[in-house]
Amino acid sequence: MIVALIGAGHIAAALVQGWRRPAVTEPPSLIVFDVVGERAERLAAAGGGRAATSAAEAVVAADLTVLAVRPEDVEGVLADLGAAFSGPIVSVAAGVNVARLVAALPAGAGVCRVMPNVAAAMGLGVFLFVRGTLSAEQAEVVVRLFASAGTVFALEEERFDAATAVAGCMPGMLASLVTYFAAAAEAHGIEPAAARLLAVEGVHGAAATIAASGDPASVTAAAATPGGMTAAAVASLEADGVAGAVQRAVTAAADRAKELT
Ligand SMILES: NC(=O)c1ccc[n+]([C@@H]2O[C@H](COP(=O)([O-])OP(=O)(O)OC[C@H]3O[C@@H](n4cnc5c(N)ncnc54)[C@H](OP(=O)(O)O)[C@@H]3O)[C@@H](O)[C@H]2O)c1
């Protein structure tokens, strides 16, 4: 399959890395366009593809287009494309809903939303998928492409912002918590590099354990021996209102998505 990538920034790079892993048996061929030509060249080289000199050139040659520009640039790119494409368009832009995408495209175009996260680079992405106007056949192609770099969750657009706030924002939110764990280790006299390593490796193993279990509450129950250290830590987190803090963080992210819409 030939995939056109419009925009060669952070998330496009994570997707390309995910699709080019040795475990992916049929990686897509890539045609990349970015307003910064050098960026497109670099990403195309990393993905074993080629750079295009315009969005229309990339899209016309592709089976499917991934729009990976910032939300404020989406409609401009679609206007420039006109009717230069035939395959489905996948927008990964936060806050740009299907209605806006449809309004910016010629009648009958197949367009959907996918919200990736940067874990795509390791094949551990979470991809929220709103089918939009795709045919069943187009939707199958899109799901297959993204599933090769992680897990695809199809959902209604009404739930998209909340789901994005949890899964899409998770790497950033969790990384910020890990920074606090490193700072706590430092506060207890562990030197900075070791403190960071303890926090990073700690979360790595913990995340793998939670993923293997599929049930975070049972991991907490197994780890928190009554009267033990983890039980004391979890009780302290609860007393400090961590549940409310997480609720508010997710609400803040979902509210921000609504502002972008
Ligand atoms: N980063 C994430 O973790 C993440 C996660 C999920 C979804 N997303 C979504 O993915 C999209 C891209 O995010 P990002 O973080 O990858 O942004 P980014 O790093 O800024 O990349 C966007 C790229 O698109 C280029 N661009 C701007 N206008 C263009 C045009 N008309 N044609 C082609 N390229 C153009 C930009 O160039 P200039 O910098 O010169 O403008 C930049 O190189 C956003 O809509 C965001 O909501 C991002």
Number of structurally distinct domains: 2
Label the CATH architecture of the largest domain.
3-Layer(aba) Sandwich
Biggest sheet layout: 8 strands, mixed
What is the number of helical segments per DSSP (H or I, 4+ residues)? Answer: 12
Distance between the termini: 31 Å
Strand runs, count: 8
Helix content: 40-55%
Order of helices and strands: EHEHEHEHEHEEHEHHHHHH
Bound molecules: NADP nicotinamide-adenine-dinucleotide phosphate
Give the strand order, joined by hyphens, for the main sheet: 3-2-1-4-5-6-7-8
Strand content: 5-15%
Please tell me what the overall shape is.
elongated
- CATH topology label of the largest domain: Rossmann fold
Say which CATH homologous superfamily of the largest domain is assigned: NAD(P)-binding Rossmann-like Domain
Computed structural class: alpha/beta
Output the CATH class name of the largest domain.
Alpha Beta
Q: Average pLDDT value?
A: 95
Residue ranges: pLDDT <50 for 5 or more in a row? none
